[in-house]
Amino acid sequence: MFGFGYNVFGQICSLKEKKCDNYEHGGLSVIDVPVQVDISLSEDVVKIQSSWTNTFLLKKNGTVTTSGWIPGTKALGNVNNFLPGEVVQDISCSCNKVALLSKAKKLFLWNDFMHENSFPTVVKLKESLSMIRCGDLLTIVLTDDGHLGQLVTDSSTTQDEEVLVSFAEITFSHCVQTVSCGKEHVLILTDKGAVFSFGGGSRGQIGNGRLDQQDEPKPIEALSGITIRVTSCGGWHSAVITSCGDLYMWGWNKDGQVGVSYNNTDIPQEVPVQIQAVPVPVVFSNDSVTDVSCGSRHTAAITCNGELWTWGFGFYGQLGHGSRKSCRKPTMVKFSPTLSTLTKMTKKSIHCNHWNTFVSVKKDATNH
C-alpha cells in the first residue's frame, strides 16, 4: 500500500522515521509523492478509512489497525488492534467520528475521538445492520433485510453520558448495492446500477441541476439508462464509473476537482466552471476507468492499465505530483522506479480522504 498527502499526525508514515521508502523531499508533515506504507500495517487490508488525523485499516481477520492520532488520547502512533475482542465486519469514518460494525452485529460509535476522554460506545438498536457509512452530517446504515436508514443521535447527550442513538428509516424501495457519503450528501447505488442522491446540494453535489437541499433519495436523471458500478462522494463533489468504464463527475469545482475546466483539451477555459450541477463525462485517457475516489477537494482515478491519475486541490501533497500545487486537469502520477517495479504486475484500488490519497495493490492472479 502507498500513500501521500497530509502527514502531520503520522497517519501515512511515522514521524519518528528520518525518511520513508524512496522519499527524499524533506520533512514528513507533507508527503507529495507516493511512499510505501509500513508493510506490517498494510498486510491483508480489505478496507481503508481515514480522517484528517487518522488512518484505519480493516484486515481480513477482522482486526483494525490505526496510525496517526490515537483515539481517546493526546498521543500519536500505531495501534495494532483498535477494538480488542471484536471481529470487525465494516468500518467507516468522517472528520471526527468513526463507526465499527462487528460480525456479531454490535455497532460501536466513537464521536469526537480526538477528545482525550472520549471512548467508543455500543449503540443498541433493534435492527441488525450489514453496512454503515459516515458523513460529516449524516450516518447511513443498511439492515440485514435491506432497509435503509439514518442514525439519529440525541443532541442532549453530554460527554459523560451514554450516547443515545436511534434508527430512522429512509423510504427507499430499491435493493441497495452500496452507499457513499460526502460532508452533506449521499449517493445510493442499487443492484440494477441506478444512482439516487439526497442531502445537501449547496454546491451541486446532488447532481439534479439545483443547489438546494433534497430530503429524500431521488434518481439522478442525467444518468438515467446508464448502468453504474462505482460511486464516490467527496466533500462537495461526486463521481461514478459506468459499466463501460466511463467516468462521470459533478459538484463543486473550485480547485478543479471535477475535472471539467479543460473541456478534454490542453487549453483551459477563460472562466473555469465553479459548480457543475449535473453529471458530465470526464475524459483524460484512452483507457477505461476501473476505480475512482474523491477526497474533500481532490479526485483520484485508476485506468484499466494501472495508471493512477489525480486532480484538484493539492496543497497538502495529496495529488502525488511532487509539489503542493493544485491541478485543474487530470494528471498521471509518476511512481519512482523502485515503486513502479513493486506495482508493475498488480491490481490497484484507491481511497481518498480529506487531504490524503492511498493506493492499495495486490498481485493479479491473471499475470504470471
UniProtKB/TrEMBL annotation:
Entries under InterPro entries matching the protein: RCC1/BLIP-II, RCC1_domain-containing, Reg_chr_condens
Domain of life: Eukaryota
Ranges for the RCC repeats: 193-244, 245-305, 306-363
Protein name (record): X-linked retinitis pigmentosa GTPase regulator-like
Organism: Actinia tenebrosa (Australian red waratah sea anemone)
The organism's taxonomic lineage, starting at the top: Eukaryota, Metazoa, Cnidaria, Anthozoa, Hexacorallia
Gene assigned in the entry: LOC116303095
